[in-house]
Please model this.
Amino acid sequence: MSFRLAAYAVCIEDGQVLIARHVSPKGESTWTLPGGRVEHGEDPFDTVVREVAEETGCEAVVERLLGVDSRVIPAAERAVPGGPEHQNVGVFYGVRIVAGRLRPEPNGGIAESVWTPIPDVADLRRSSLVDIGLALARTLPATGHVAPVPVGGLIQH
Model:
């Protein structure tokens, strides 16, 4: 089994959430939250600030820890065929954008970042991370955990 620890930004302002359009090497687009892999020796708190800057061009300030999500993606459902099953542990933070202008990620997989009305998210092909982040921000569970999001249709791993 492969493993990834990642940190994700949930930025909500005026009923809109900041989401990023990831384009795979095959050219498939999926909306996700700004965020990504925690580098060796890096604190997830620092990761989320770094990833927002890299992917969106904006400076973020962490306002609170929202929660943690752990999911195992079966080998047969992975985007990269032939790989083992994969566990992703995501640390979700509520953040606020304080500076910068949205732009594509230079030399990266994020083609654009946009403010999207929260009700419109349901109509987008998106990562389950978006639904997890929005659920954590909406409910602020004391345990920092929400029920798993079913994958299928517009919701991808």
Q: What stands out?
A: DSSP finds two helices and ten strands in the chain. The chain has one domain: 2-156.
